[in-house]
Amino acid sequence: MPHKPDGGSFRSFFFQLIVLRFMAMSKASFLITILGLAGKLPLRAAQLAGRFLGTIAWTFRTNSRRVTEINLGIAFPDLTNDQHQNMARSSLRHTGQTMMEIPLMWEWPVERCLGLIREIEGEELLENAKKDGRGLLLLAPHLGNWELTGLYFSSRYRMAALYSPPHIKEFEDYMIRVRGRLGSELVRGDRRGLARLIALLREGEVTGILPDQSPRGKGNAYAPFFGMDVRTMTLVSKLLQKSGAKPLMTYSERLKDGRGFRLVIRECEEGIADTDPLIATTALNRSIENVVREIPEQYQWEYKRFRHRVPGEINPYKPDRVC
């Protein structure tokens, strides 16, 4: 008689099928599948998983922890060692939560995502900005949940956002689809994309930018950010000068115990549209600082924001090298 497989054999067989299935996937398909699975979680479960990932990054002294501690030492030199450690640990946990929330923002129905916004602060600034028909340039640093911020504004306005394409083409298509499911237009950060942003702003529309990235190439300026001169994008001031748009800072603060988010809108510092690059970038960085200081634990301190300093200065992440 033929051998009848037992339950363990069946489990082993199906496990092998699953492994072979994942092995046959492209990198993009594998990543999209993982995001789809994570996107089925409720908010509280996703945040708990994110906190767990952040705790692991802290406990095992990862490079993310090292960079976070360096950044906080630069930004908040007056804190005690215990305060630095507590803030660094909290920052890693919040970054983990952001990572686990992104699949929700991409996979959940839009109405469910927007239902997470429990309150809005500064909404009158939006109304005032749109009264005269000017374009609106939204500046959303890596603070809180920036994906939810973008989703909210694309639900209210005809909107375009600047993005950097990932290296995997299939994943870029997926990212454009999920971010643009309310009609938001994603444009690349090249000459054609910037021309598109300017045109939309001149028409009185809304565009969004993540303003706290370290820009590449020439044509940028070195301006103080938390007391250290770092390379800063001049793109914001150029867009404002060419379009006459109104700039506003915005972020989505994560509330405790999985209760959702608070959307915050703030005025920018005077001088952000100045024709002098140093004045404009100093105002931009100060505007970012202002909102980061409101909830510093929810800022992405794991990013090497201080790596591009004035040439000849010490690289804080590699003290044996100069910039």
From TrEMBL:
Q: Major location, coarse class?
A: membrane
Please verify whether the record's keywords include Secreted. Answer: no
Q: Does this entry carry the keyword Plastid?
A: no
> Localized where?
Cell inner membrane
One family from Pfam that matches here is Lip_A_acyltrans
Write down what this protein is called.
KDO2-lipid IV(A) lauroyltransferase
Which lineage is the organism of this entry classified under, starting from the top rank?
A: Bacteria, Pseudomonadati, Pseudomonadota, Gammaproteobacteria, Pseudomonadales
Give the residue spans that cross the bilayer: 13-38
- InterPro entries reported in the protein's UniProt record: LipA_acyltrans
Q: Which domain of life is it from?
A: Bacteria
The record's listing under CDD domains reads: LPLAT_LABLAT-like
Q: Which UniProt keywords apply?
A: Acyltransferase, Cell inner membrane, Cell membrane, Membrane, Transferase, Transmembrane, Transmembrane helix
